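It would be a great kindness if you could assist me with a short task in structural biology. The full record is reproduced below for your convenience:
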Amino acid sequence: MDISIRTYAPEDGEAVVGLALRAWEPVHASMAKVMGTEIYALTVGDWRQTQTRDVQADLDAEETRAWVAVTDRVAGFATVKLDRKESTGELHMLAVDPDQQERGVGAALIRFAEEYMRAEGVRVALISTGGDPGHAPARAAYESAGYTGLPVVNYFKAL
């Protein structure tokens, strides 16, 4: 399968948001199960609305670079934020449409983002993800790309 990566354009917005929601639906189901419905509702609320807002904000932010992976259509996207002072870059968002997963789209986006960060003088790349079962495919992709995970635990309690 041919994968090309290009700079995000505003006309990609609907496709990107749609694939992000499809890709992250199982993640949110997993988070709700792990956290419990009460805490999940208090911390996340309507995840589709929140994710739509957050994805669009990342795509629109001047300090964020965004790209789309294209096969026969927009198949995935990635955003990167740089911290030049710390010489770090964060692969902030990455999603691949579920019917395009396991085809190298995510790996291609990771490599592309790393090349961009390297060209910008960044010395360390960061990717954050969840530790719940729904994020297992993301963790596997990042580990396959050579990233080292540092476990962090967040505790929640409804008050």
Residues 131 and 154 are 10 Å apart (CA to CA). The first helix runs from residue 13 to 35.
